[in-house]
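Friendly challenge for the regulars: who can give me the structure tokens for this chain first? No prize, just bragging rights.
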Amino acid sequence: MIEFTQREKSENNGAIKRIGKKTGIDVGRSLFNVDASSGKVNLDGLWKFKIDPDDLGRLYRDEVRISQSVTVEVVNSLCTIINTGLNILFSPENFDGASFIFNEKPILTPGKKNFEKLGAVLTAEAERIDKTRIVQQANSWHKQWDYDWTIDKYDWRVDNHFYPGWYYKEWADINDINKMKPEYFDFVTEFGAQALPCRESMEKIFGEDMWPPNWVEYEKKCFQKDEQLHWIGEPDNIDSFINKSQTHQAFVLKYIIEYLRMKKFTYCNGTLMFLYNDCRPTITWSVLDYYRRPKAGYYALKDAFAPILVMIEYPQEADYIAGKCSNIFIVNDTNELLDGLTVKFRLLNNQNELLCNGSFNATVPVNGLYKSENDIIKIDNETCVIELNLFRGTELLSSNRYDRSFG
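First reply, four minutes later:
Bragging rights claimed.
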């Protein structure tokens, strides 16, 4: 722990209060999940505790640089969560150096200088405090400045964020993920899509503003209207709105998680989605809303991250029309050799009638990945459902389903 004088503590609290005054939010709780004045951490449902001083920097107009003492104060709060078992990684800053608009004013975030100086200090301190967890000096996104610079100069691979299926101005189609450099999959720590909570939660959050949507109130609760309506269209009623929103989120999570798991140890070494639960009543990328009610994405997340999973490359509409062939993959995240396996598959039409079926045997190494030698499955324009089942003897180890209408 680094100790501060009373004057330094006063300056730290003053800096955070100034941000709160300018933005109207509790910066400590909202950005850090930690109370800025007391250092107490809210552990309720905590999934990823992320120290992000550059996020604070975005909220300043004239005070972009955050004092080292303020950020080290935040690092000290790590000591309160070391033994909770809830923390996965420490990432001191956003690695962007990009321009943002806040209250119609341009803000330049520190980025590169902080990575070299402040990020290094915070990383070293976090590693000293807790030697059991991953510490990443920064995180990034795929169109920021030269990713290779951190590797060449520091032998440091930043964890990455990307949002195919959500930010459509950057990602016209979820398949654009295939255009990314493989090294950007090294460690992915953000992806996903927003989804509305269930009707009961929406009524508690918005009251009479729920329907017809009061877009001003929706956007005050973090909702990104343009992105959501781009993917699901204009809503007809609140129940359809909720269903389409949650269905799209579930599709995005399934698609990206399976895509990354097919690259296990071949470029991708791990991934975390964004985000698990809400810390206040909002509409966000969470799969559990503020009231801890699950969205459809919660179950998609659970299924896609199963330790043993059988899967194919997620087919898109053009694949059905073109008659695409596909390999079958089996990922094994256990410390057990999976031998004596049988994969069974079925293709159904829109009347749920069988088009074709088949099976083959497989063995998957410990903590490894299996890919079929040949293109086992061929879909065509009649195909509407693909079903996969993985057996060891009579025991069902994994099942998966791809519904043409789902995506």
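Residues 1-5, 15-70, 95-110 have pLDDT under 50 and may be disordered. Residues 308-403 form a domain with the Immunoglobulin-like fold (CATH 2.60.40.10). Your move, everyone else.
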